[in-house]
Amino acid sequence: MTEKPNIVFLLNDHQAFYGHGESVGGPKIQRPTFEKLVSQGVEFLRAYTCCPLCAPARRSMLTGVFPHTHGVLSNFSFVPFKFKTYLDILAEEGYHNYYYGKWHAGDGTAHDHHCEGFSYPDYNNPYTKPEYKDYLKKNNLPDFQLKLQRSFVPPSSKLGKELQAKILKGEPHFLNRAASNEDTIGIMTSPKETHEAFFLAHLACEKLIEIAERGNQEPFHLRVDFWGPHQPYYATQEYLNLYPPEKIPEHPSFRDDLKNKPRLYKFERNYPLNKNGKIIFPNPLPWSEWQKILALNYAQQTLIDEAAGLIIDTLDKLGFEKNTLIILAADHGDAVGCHGGHFDKDAYMPEEMVRIPLGLRFPGVIPAGKKSDLLVSNLDIPLTILDATGSSFPHNVHGQSLLSMFTDDMNTWREDLMCESNGHFTINIGRMLVTERYKYIFNDKDKDELYDLKEDPFEMNNLIGNNHYEMILNDLKRRLVEWRQKCNDIITRKEIIQDRLRFAREHMDESTLLEN
After folding, report:
1. Rounded to the nearest 10 degrees, how much is the dihedral formed by the CA atoms of 358, 29, 184, 110?
2. Of 33, 313, 328, 455, which has fewest CB within 10 angstroms of its CB?
3. Apex 113 CA angle, 109 and 115, nearest 5
4. Averaged pLDDT, 16-41
5. What is the CATH number of the domain that holds 14?
6. Into how many domains does the chain fold?
7. Of the candidates 339, 359, 366, 342, which has an alpha carbon nearest to the alpha carbon of residue 350?
């Protein structure tokens, strides 16, 4: 056993978490791996993302600073790294880094940060890679294949026509495009082991076995970034059987008419949910159709949880459990079905998009079975990893080590938390400040938001114009200003537009990104 602890970090992408499952009277989303992990460690019940968008949040989880500081302002940002990542620091400390899965943190890949493993640029698609083809051949598996159930791609487009034809004809579908992020749902007809989550788990388990066989002379860090449960929502029938669609209750904000919301909530790009880029109210899909969508979403979550379990079980069987910190989290949430019935996400920041699952297991440091309702962020994860290894970032950081809750005598923690958005398909400077009870969102060119999460957990009543809450609002504004000053948050709309234009000049028509 090594003196320094090993680190295992398992990250889900875009996970429907808040407002789903048994918390709203529906079927429990079965995640036995996550539940077992937190029963042996801690579950954070009020965990938030630092930014509800993939690339900015992922760069933050590498560097420990907010997106406005590291410069990846959107999924369209490919700026070079300005700061050391925790991967670089671990390598300097003698760790072997192994990385398997989605990168999507802007420029480069994990290989540029002292990692070996399976990592390709940007979002990418694991199903087209030679390593995946070798995995199928080695395990006598067929190609990944499914039957599409629904496409949210406009049928007027070339891709939309192709997908719709497959749905109508019942033709098999293969995920063979450059990026595996199609806005579709479907039932896998190939075995569950052909799913990318099982492929990544296989690679990770093989590496753990290899480490054990050579005697584990140096500490290791193993990270697995699953592509799901981000759409497309794909799973086999065995998982889908766990979630009868008719048992899934209507999401509490599905019928939100958005009258007291910022106009940000009204933008929607997916078919058939929009007209001229704005969400249609009432939603053109009846809830009976959304039940089928969510059933596949939940099914894929359970599939991925099982794949994660293979990694943890292998780790434990090999004898690494006593000296390993395991972290299981998500980069951000999913707006599916919320506030009028959205699919995917945009520049708004409801709880559905900013709340995430987060669990840690660290024997001898974190007591088993603990549940914490303190405000934590996935921005805290890289600091926690370095703290566990006895190291730290050389630059100023914006998070805190989660281990300090269990090791510091004073046991003090933050009383509020900031989350930021610099827009997605819609440009916006959004800053959220959340406390134990209240939530305030500043939107630079739009209506601000104020919610009492205790009385209104699904944010149906925007209190921003209610004089009764003036003192509370002023206090939240003051706290947000303090956060922004502490983090040197002086980003401007001009910088965000320039960020989008850099991408647009290389990849698409500029008007597409700037029309909103």
Report:
1. 30
2. 455
3. 85
4. 97
5. 3.40.720.10
6. 1
7. 339
**What 3-state class would DSSP assign to 294?**
helix
What's at 208, amino acid-wise?
L
pLDDT at 509: 46
SS3 328: strand
DSSP 396-454: --S---TTHHHH-SS----S-EEEEE--SSS---EEEEE-SSEEEEEETTS--EEEETT
- Write the pLDDT tens digit of every residue in 75-133: 989 999 999 999 999 999 999 999 999 999 999 999 999 999 999 999 999 999 999 99
Is residue 280 situated within a structural domain?
Answer: yes
Q: How far apart are CA 332 and CA 116, in angstroms?
A: 25
Q: Is residue 318 part of a domain?
A: yes
Host domain of residue 377: 6-139+185-414
Residue corresponding to tokens 């398997």: 100
Q: Does 154 reside within a domain?
A: no
Q: Name the band, by pLDDT with cuts 50, 70 and 90, for residue 408.
A: confident
Taking a C-beta distance cutoff of 8 angstroms, is the pair 274, 153 a contact? no
Angle at which helices 130-138 and 196-213 cross, to 10°: 80
- Burial level of 34, CB count in 10 A (0-12/13-18/19+)? buried
Q: Alpha-carbon distance 342 to 269, whole Å?
A: 9
User: What's the pLDDT at 216?
Assistant: 65
Which pLDDT score is estimated for 515?
A: 34
The confidence score (pLDDT) of residue 1 equals 41
pLDDT confidence of residue 412: 84
**How do residues 184-240 score in pLDDT, each as one tens digit?**
999 999 999 999 999 999 999 999 999 999 986 799 999 999 999 999 999 999 999
Q: Which one-letter DSSP state was computed for residue 22?
A: G
Q: Which residues, 6+ apart, have CB-to-CB distance to 477 below 8 Å?
A: 433, 440, 442
> CA 377: distance to chain centroid?
12
Angle at 245 between CA 240 and CA 247, to 5 degrees: 115
The C-alpha torsion from 377 through 353 and 484 to 463, rounded to 10°, is -120
Whether 60 is in a domain gets the answer yes
CA distance linking residue 263 with residue 285, whole number of Å: 21
Q: CA 301 to CA 231: how far, in whole Å?
A: 11
Partnered with residue 4 across adjacent β-strands are none
Tokens describing residue 5: 């602890």
